[in-house]
Structures are given as C-alpha cells and as structure tokens.
Write a structure and sequence with these properties.
Layout lengths: L19 H11 L7 H14 L5 H11 L4 H9 L5 H19 L24 H9 L7 H15 L3 H4 L2 E4 L5 E3 L15 H15 L7 E5 L5 H12 L4 E5 L8 H8 L5 E6 L10 H10 L9 E7 L21 H9 L7 E5 L4 H14 L6 H14 L5 H14 L4
Parallel strand pairs: 1-4, 3-6, 3-7, 4-5, 5-6
Antiparallel strand pairs: 1-2
Helix pairs in contact: 2-3, 3-6, 4-7, 5-7, 14-15, 14-16
Length: 414
C-alpha cells in the first residue's frame, strides 16, 4: 500500500482530498492497484501541462493543491498577516509532517514513467511550487516542519490562497462571486510612453495604500486611447506580489458595490475596484449608488479597497441644457445641477490624460518602433505615422500602437 494513503490523516488540508485526481489515486493506492489507470495518467498529464508543473508531476500537483487550498490556516494567515494561535499551529505542523512523509516516499507505483520527470511544453509561469516542494523534500534536516510552517505563512501572506494566489484581476459575476481573469493584460507602466506626472501620482497613491497609509480614490479623465485604463492595469502587474488585486465592475453592477465590498473587507489583500470608461446619461441613477460609496454612507468603505475610475468626461453625469433653463420646473434647479456635476468631486485625485500633440505622438511612435526593432529611417517612420493618424482616430497612444502593429505586419524588422 502506498504512503499516499497517509493523506487521509490530514486535519487542516483535508479539502485536497476532494480533488478528483487525488481521489482516484487514493482509491488506486488503497486497492493496491498494480498500475495507475490510463484515465488518471491522462488527467494528471493534462493538469501538469496546463499548470506548467515540473519534476515529478504527482508531487508537484500535490504541492499545487496545498498552496492553493482554502482552509482555516490559509484564510487566517491572510486576514491576520501571519498571526496564528498555538492550537492551530500544532494542527498545521501535524499535517506538514504527514505531507513531508508522503512527498519523500516512492510513488512510482502510482505514476507513469513520463510523469516522473515532467517537462511542460511551455514554462512561462514564475511558480513557487518547485521551491516549496524542495523544502518538503529536504533530507538534510535543515527544514523541519516548524520551518516549513513559516515558509507557508510567508507564502499565504504574500500571495494569498486559492484564486487570490493565481490571478491578478477579477470580475464580479452576476452570481455575486469573484471570477479570475485568466489572460490579464501584462502591460507595464514603463510601456506607457509619456504621462510621467500621472504615473508618478498613481504610484505614490498606490504605495501609500499598500503601506496602510491614507490613500485616495482616483478618477482618470481624458481623450480615448491615451493610456488611462492601461495605467491602472499596470499598477496591479507592478504590485501583485505586494498583495494588490483588481476587481473590474460594470456600470450596471454599481448598485452591488456594498455587497462586493463586504465580501472583500476581511480579505488579506488590497483591492482596486475598477470602473472603466465610466459615464452616466441624465436618466441613469446608478451614479447615486457610487456617490454614496464615495461619500462613506452608513457603511464605511473597507480600508483594503480603493476605487479607480476612467472616463472620457470630466463630469461623469451628462448635464442637459434643460437643467439650467429658466423654464425648468424644478424649484431646486441649482441642487439638480450640483448633484450631477459633483460626482467627480468625490474622487480625491483627478488625473487628466490629454491628447498628445504631434511631437509627443511621434515620440510615442519612435519609442515603440525602437522596442520592436523596426527598420525604417526616422523620416519615413514619422511621415507614415502622420499619415496614419490623419486617416484614423487622431493622435493617441492607441493610434500609435495600431500604426506599429500595421508596420510590423508589412515591413521587415531589423
């Protein structure tokens, strides 16, 4: 009988026993099956490829389950910053000792030979799985269970658990749950050319937020394609390992903001609630929910949440001439006007992304061309870039990127 059956003695990490693959393996081990079934091999190999696991696929997969398990230990670490009671500590050490014995044991009877030293087709994910597995496999005596406990605390504190450890960005689903964004934009702040003052302000505000200092909600306004949304996404990529996550909210979901914030309040991570391309017509009332949240309302905004919105409008709620008309029957006409224009004022920081002038636009093009090693003489590049913006959507970072994409598809690179 394989040592794998010792996993049935787990106390804290028992949730991993519900995993389909592990369940099949345990059944096979209990029944002393002579070899792993083709079905299990198929499932484990598929997971190893998808997760880009390396080394012994079974042991790496077991470590993946441990690091992503949502249990009383991982959730307590995330919410307390690592403070753990003595009883919980003893229970975790008990489980670590079991996991050490299992991971150090010979599991070849349960795995196919090409899963013993697995090399994925692609290996682009920077993973802690291999590093953590090595701690468990240590035979020198330098990694007792108590030391591995501290390593797990460090991991859960820094990365979180479950989907929080895997994804930088989330969407709030219609069912009221967070759904991880699998293919999140990997844009960096360094990729956004220009707008240095705006980026520096975002960096300072975000670092204050992450340091538990006062931080402001932010409104980014300006012309389309100037990098407003990209700036916000780039913040999360820069500060992911510091615990920053993004949750994108659609306009029609604004009325559920209080519900969302309640679900985030006790999480150990910091969250940007992201409202992209935000604006309201005069007949839409969702802005009142947002205004209530920004003002504080009865329920305070969690300390681990800030709101960042982007918009092409300085005033987020469309104002009609009728609002100012002397014929307007509203006896509180000024109140109506002030209510509609005051939403923007609720954001502590407003950053403006102006449309670049021609020289700034050409600088963006030249920087992008240099990055992609485009072999065009500067004069021709500038001439073609000007023609492009005149026949397309005007000058912006997005227009420059579209021009570069066109050049890459039609001109040889150096």
């Amino acid at each position: 009988m394989s040592n794998l059956t010792e996993l049935n003695k787990l106390i804290i990490f028992r949730n991993i026993l519900n995993d389909t693959i592990l369940n099949r393996l345990l059944d096979s081990a209990v029944n002393d099956a002579p070899s792993i079934s083709y079905q299990i091999t198929h499932e484990l190999l598929t997971k190893a490829e998808q997760l880009q696991l390396q080394g012994n696929a079974l042991k790496s997969y077991l470590m993946y389950l441990i690091l992503n398990d949502e249990n009383i230990f991982s959730t307590t670490v995330e919410t307390t910053g690592g403070a753990i009671g003595e009883s919980l500590f003893k229970a975790v050490v008990h489980d670590i000792s079991i996991l050490q014995d299992v991971l150090k044991s010979d599991l070849r009877c349960l795995t196919n030979e090409f899963l013993e030293d697995f090399h994925p087709t692609h290996c682009t994910i920077t993973s802690k799985i291999e590093e953590m597995t090595n701690y468990f496999l240590d035979n020198t005596g330098s990694c007792p269970a108590e030391k591995i406990f501290k390593k797990l605390v460090d991991y859960y504190t820094r990365f979180g658990h479950g989907e929080m450890a895997q994804y930088a960005a989330f969407r709030w689903s219609e069912d009221g749950v967070l759904v991880g964004v699998k293919h999140y934009d990997q844009i960096r702040l360094e990729d956004i050319i220009g707008y240095d003052r705006q980026k520096e302000t975002l960096i300072r505000n975000t670092e204050a937020f992450l340091a538990n200092k006062p931080a402001n909600n932010v409104l980014l306004v300006g012309a389309r394609g100037t990098g407003k949304s990209s700036s916000v996404k780039a913040l999360v990529n820069r500060y992911f390992t510091d615990g920053l996550r993004l949750v994108e909210i659609a306009k029609h979901q604004i009325k559920y903001l209080h519900e969302l914030m309640s679900s985030l309040r006790n999480r150990g991570k910091k969250f940007i609630l992201f409202l992209d391309d935000l604006s309201f017509e005069d007949y839409e009332v969702e802005y009142k929910y947002l205004k209530s949240v920004l003002d504080g309302g009865v329920e305070s905004k969690p300390a681990n949440v800030i709101i960042i919105a982007t918009s092409n409008r300085r005033h987020l709620v469309r104002e009609l001439w009728n609002d100012r008309s002397e014929n307007n029957s509203d006896i509180h006409r000024n109140d109506t006007i002030n209510e509609k224009i005051s939403l923007s004022d609720r954001f502590g920081i407003t950053l403006t992304y102006l449309q670049p002038n021609q020289e700034e636009y050409l600088t963006i093009v030249e920087e992008m061309a240099k990055k992609h090693n485009i072999a065009l003489c500067p004069a021709q590049l500038r001439s073609e870039a000007i023609k492009w913006e005149l026949s397309h959507s005007g000058r912006s970072g997005r227009t420059a990127q579209q021009f570069i994409s066109y050049i890459l598809g039609n001109v040889k690179t150096g």
